[in-house]
Design brief:
12 strands, globular, Chitinase A, domain 3, alpha+beta, 440 residues, 14 helices, five-stranded antiparallel sheet, Triger factor/SurA peptide-binding fold, four-stranded antiparallel sheet
């Protein structure tokens, strides 16, 4: 489930980068700009990725870093990607053509296109379909490597869940009267006019300090040793405070972090990089009357299961036919679900009931969340088959005690995954043999 979520999140980047890969403009003379173990990164690859990034910044109306800094950052991204592909190859992680074709069909379906229409659309935009396909294969391989090396190692304790629920409950009290939190922090300062390289240096310094701080039992003593005059590091002992007396940045960062625990990632602000420890909490517990509210969705679906005697294209064609019948009011969604849906909800006209975030597989939930009330989706592929989805209603609802813990566990795990992934990337980068050539 987590793998699927990561893949389809990444696909947006693949499509953008793919456009640059497939451009038909004249090609520069190719050179090797980096050697990653035994693999090569060429100048053509670097220039294509740079063009794609510049296009993204221009579309978003954002200011680009300096040319040299951007070039360095993009090359590092390519190096990281190549290291992951090399590791995946060593571990025998592959995506065979039949599976890749199924994923391509799903991507096309999410864009409300058949695979033939999707190919035409790519080619009209100057994107090589074969190149896009191979980039997609690499995305899936990288996702599976991450699942094996990072996702499987992340654990969430019951104490972390208790603190998360307690923080959520306290957040409903605007006066912060339910308890106090004791925070301390180190700030690696960054000047308001700092260059990209200055910011990168400050981040590297802060990351080094964070690693040391995690290993230290006496954070306040460690802070005093680090924050010496002229070091550019400032120590702050904030003492016990209610939430309304803390900057929102610190409130958000410490949410769900237990007493005597470090916030496991750097927090960046206009002042610099914050290294934060929750020293203690008091006057607050995860009581039985704690409440977490979420947006629930009531939806129907029609499911056509994966079958050896039915192609992916045929399943999509059938569901598109059902959607057209519903659109022109030749048939009702519930009637079609009762007649054709291949799961237990068919008897109820495809009704799934009220679903909370995280209860459905990611592909289904993401497609459902994009729909307006009453809207019918394009065909959506999941591990169970192909779905047609209709949203009936949405509501804000309080979760039961058990559901609260499930929700909290998922939220904490998601946050931990991000930090664990960043740490893993740094680790494999340090362990790789990389030679940079002709970057200028």
């Amino acid at each position: 489930m987590k793998l699927a979520k990561f893949i389809f999140f990444s696909l947006g980047l693949t499509f953008v980068f793919g456009a640059a890969h497939g451009q038909k403009a004249s090609q520069p003379i190719d050179q090797v700009v980096a050697v990653v173990d035994t693999s090569l990164i060429t100048k053509v690859e670097l220039e294509r990725r740079l063009a794609a990034i510049e296009k993204q910044f221009k579309t978003a109306n954002r200011q680009l870093p300096s040319s040299a800094e951007l070039r360095k950052q993009v090359l590092e991204r390519l190096i990281s990607e190549q290291i992951q592909q090399n590791l995946a190859k060593e571990q025998g992680i592959k995506v065979l053509d039949p599976e890749l074709d199924r994923i391509l069909n799903s991507v096309a379906g999410q864009n409300k296109l058949t695979i033939a229409e999707f190919k035409i659309k790519l080619e009209k935009e100057g994107v090589s379909f074969n190149k896009y396909k191979e980039d997609l294969r690499k995305e899936v391989v990288a996702a599976r490597l991450r699942e094996r090396e990072v996702d499987a190692r992340v654990r969430v304790s019951e104490a972390e869940i208790d603190n998360y629920i307690a923080e959520k409950n306290r957040g409903k009290n605007s006066q912060g009267a339910n308890g106090e939190v004791y925070l301390a922090q180190l700030l690696v300062a960054v000047a308001s006019n700092a260059s990209e390289s200055d910011i990168a240096s400050a981040r590297e310094k802060a990351e080094s300090i964070l690693k040391q701080a995690i290993a230290e039992k006496d954070f306040l003593g460690f802070s005093k040793r680090i924050a010496i005059a002229g070091s550019g590091v400032r120590s702050e002992d904030l003492g016990y405070r209610t939430l309304d007396r803390l900057p929102q940045l610190l409130v958000d960062a410490s949410t769900g972090v237990a007493s005597n625990q470090m916030v496991s990632r750097l927090i960046q602000s206009g002042a610099g990089f914050h290294i934060i420890k929750v020293m203690d909490r008091k006057g607050l517990s995860a009581s039985s009357d704690a409440e977490i509210s979420v947006t629930q969705t009531q939806a129907k679906h029609i499911l056509l299961k994966h079958r050896s005697n039915q192609t992916e294209q045929e399943a999509q064609r059938r569901l598109n036919s059902f959607k057209e019948q519903i659109k022109v009011k030749e048939a009702d969604f519930s009637q079609l679900a009762k007649k054709y849906s291949e799961d237990g909800s068919a008897a109820n006209g495809g009704m799934l009931g009220w679903m909370s975030p995280g209860e459905l597989v990611p592909e289904f939930e993401q497609a459902m969340n994009r729909l307006n009330i009453g809207e019918v989706s394009a065909p959506v592929r999941t591990e169970f088959g192909w779905h047609l989805i209709q949203v009936i209603e949405r509501r804000d609802a309080k979760l039961s005690a058990d559901k609260q813990r499930d929700y909290a566990r998922a939220a904490i795990r998601e946050r931990k995954l991000d930090q664990a992934y960043e740490d893993w990337i740094r680790q494999i980068r340090d362990g790789a043999t990389v030679e940079i050539r002709n970057l200028d």
